[in-house]
């Protein structure tokens, strides 16, 4: 089977991460993966939500949105009354969980890191691009914070990235574009750390159920893509990448 953009089955889209894309946040990137483009920012606030007050622990939380013109048919802005739809809620909570899984929130102290992911062009895989990009934005913000605050050890334990995989016409494929995603028998989003540990797997066999063997094959494909993404994150972060994972535990 030929892929719509001529890629091999295990080939991810062309990816580009531009660091310091926005001037004011503590960390920011533009991540482009094929035709999907997301701006991710990280802003540090010196307070925590009420449930963490007095605990000494920090928090990482995320918001996600799509520009009205980012999709093939215009997506109206979400209500300004603070209500977001189910998909948006699911995605923003996913991004928060993914990043918290690799940060020691005790070392962070009573601070909140706000991660904002804004999709400016959507062509499949916006949540996975948001996670991969916002990890870099978070790492930039942490690097900045580490120049002001003396951390006992570095709060980021390891790298994390995410990619989509799926089964299209019975073929397992890496990094689906919208066209593939909308025809997929099975689609799955995989979030994994540098050490190959899974943070989350969201897999759905909507057109047909899938076997354990197929799931393993998809996870192996995803792992290959994620390790390549982490190499790129390291390259983009340059010297500050070496601090990640340098904490004592
Ligand atoms: N999409 C869209 N409008 C929407 C939601 C999604 O056009 O309201 C498109 C968009 O290209 C997106 C793709 O459908 O990337 C797949 O959406 P999904 O909910 O699976 O999330 P994603 O793959 O972006 O994480």
Automatic annotation (TrEMBL):
<keyword id="KW-0819">tRNA processing</keyword>
<keyword id="KW-0694">RNA-binding</keyword>
<keyword id="KW-0820">tRNA-binding</keyword>
<dbReference type="InterPro" id="IPR018336">
    <property type="entry name" value="RNase_PH_CS"/>
</dbReference>
<protein>
    <recommendedName>
        <fullName>Ribonuclease PH</fullName>
        <ecNumber>2.7.7.56</ecNumber>
    </recommendedName>
</protein>
<feature type="domain" description="Exoribonuclease phosphorolytic">
    <location>
        <begin position="159"/>
        <end position="225"/>
    </location>
</feature>
<feature type="binding site">
    <location>
        <begin position="125"/>
        <end position="127"/>
    </location>
    <ligand>
        <name>phosphate</name>
    </ligand>
</feature>
<dbReference type="InterPro" id="IPR027408">
    <property type="entry name" value="PNPase/RNase_PH_dom_sf"/>
</dbReference>
<dbReference type="InterPro" id="IPR015847">
    <property type="entry name" value="ExoRNase_PH_dom2"/>
</dbReference>
<dbReference type="InterPro" id="IPR036345">
    <property type="entry name" value="ExoRNase_PH_dom2_sf"/>
</dbReference>
<dbReference type="GO" id="GO:0009022">
    <property type="term" value="F:tRNA nucleotidyltransferase activity"/>
</dbReference>
<dbReference type="InterPro" id="IPR050080">
    <property type="entry name" value="RNase_PH"/>
</dbReference>
<comment type="function">
    <text>Phosphorolytic 3'-5' exoribonuclease that plays an important role in tRNA 3'-end maturation. Removes nucleotide residues following the 3'-CCA terminus of tRNAs; can also add nucleotides to the ends of RNA molecules by using nucleoside diphosphates as substrates, but this may not be physiologically important. Probably plays a role in initiation of 16S rRNA degradation (leading to ribosome degradation) during starvation.</text>
</comment>
<comment type="similarity">
    <text>Belongs to the RNase PH family.</text>
</comment>
<feature type="compositionally biased region" description="Basic and acidic residues">
    <location>
        <begin position="75"/>
        <end position="84"/>
    </location>
</feature>
<comment type="subunit">
    <text>Homohexameric ring arranged as a trimer of dimers.</text>
</comment>
<dbReference type="InterPro" id="IPR002381">
    <property type="entry name" value="RNase_PH_bac-type"/>
</dbReference>
<dbReference type="Pfam" id="PF03725">
    <property type="entry name" value="RNase_PH_C"/>
</dbReference>
<dbReference type="GO" id="GO:0008033">
    <property type="term" value="P:tRNA processing"/>
</dbReference>
<dbReference type="GO" id="GO:0000175">
    <property type="term" value="F:3'-5'-RNA exonuclease activity"/>
</dbReference>
<dbReference type="GO" id="GO:0016075">
    <property type="term" value="P:rRNA catabolic process"/>
</dbReference>
<dbReference type="InterPro" id="IPR001247">
    <property type="entry name" value="ExoRNase_PH_dom1"/>
</dbReference>
<dbReference type="GO" id="GO:0031125">
    <property type="term" value="P:rRNA 3'-end processing"/>
</dbReference>
<keyword id="KW-0698">rRNA processing</keyword>
<feature type="domain" description="Exoribonuclease phosphorolytic">
    <location>
        <begin position="13"/>
        <end position="141"/>
    </location>
</feature>
<dbReference type="Pfam" id="PF01138">
    <property type="entry name" value="RNase_PH"/>
</dbReference>
<keyword id="KW-0548">Nucleotidyltransferase</keyword>
<dbReference type="InterPro" id="IPR020568">
    <property type="entry name" value="Ribosomal_Su5_D2-typ_SF"/>
</dbReference>
<feature type="binding site">
    <location>
        <position position="87"/>
    </location>
    <ligand>
        <name>phosphate</name>
    </ligand>
</feature>
<dbReference type="GO" id="GO:0000049">
    <property type="term" value="F:tRNA binding"/>
</dbReference>
<keyword id="KW-0808">Transferase</keyword>
<feature type="region of interest" description="Disordered">
    <location>
        <begin position="65"/>
        <end position="84"/>
    </location>
</feature>
């Amino acid at each position: 089977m030929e892929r719509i953009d001529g890629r091999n089955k295990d080939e991810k889209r062309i990816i580009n991460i531009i660091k310091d894309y926005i001037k004011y946040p503590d960390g920011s990137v533009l991540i482009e993966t094929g035709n999907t483009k997301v701006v991710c920012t990280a802003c540090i606030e010196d307070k925590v939500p009420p449930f963490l007050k007095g605990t000494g622990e920090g928090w990482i939380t995320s918001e996600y949105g799509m520009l009205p013109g980012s999709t093939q048919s215009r997506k109206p802005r979400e209500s300004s009354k603070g209500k977001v739809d189910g998909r948006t809620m699911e995605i923003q909570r996913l991004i928060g969980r993914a990043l918290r899984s690799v940060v020691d929130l005790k070392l962070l102290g009573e601070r909140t890191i706000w991660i904002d992911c804004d999709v400016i062009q959507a062509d499949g895989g916006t949540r996975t691009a948001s996670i991969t990009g916002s990890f870099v934005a978070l790492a930039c913000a942490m690097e900045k914070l580490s120049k002001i605050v003396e951390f006992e050890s570095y709060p980021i334990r390891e790298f994390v990235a995410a990619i989509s995989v799926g089964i299209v016409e019975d073929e397992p494929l890496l990094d689906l574009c919208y066209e593939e995603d909308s025809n997929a028998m099975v689609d799955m989003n995989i979030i994994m750390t540098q050490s190959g540990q899974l943070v989350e797997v969201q897999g759905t066999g909507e057109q047909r159920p899938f076997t354990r063997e197929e799931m393993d094959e998809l996870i192996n494909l995803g792992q290959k893509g994620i390790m390549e993404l982490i190499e790129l994150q390291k390259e983009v972060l340059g010297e500050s990448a070496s601090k990640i994972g340098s904490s004592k535990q």
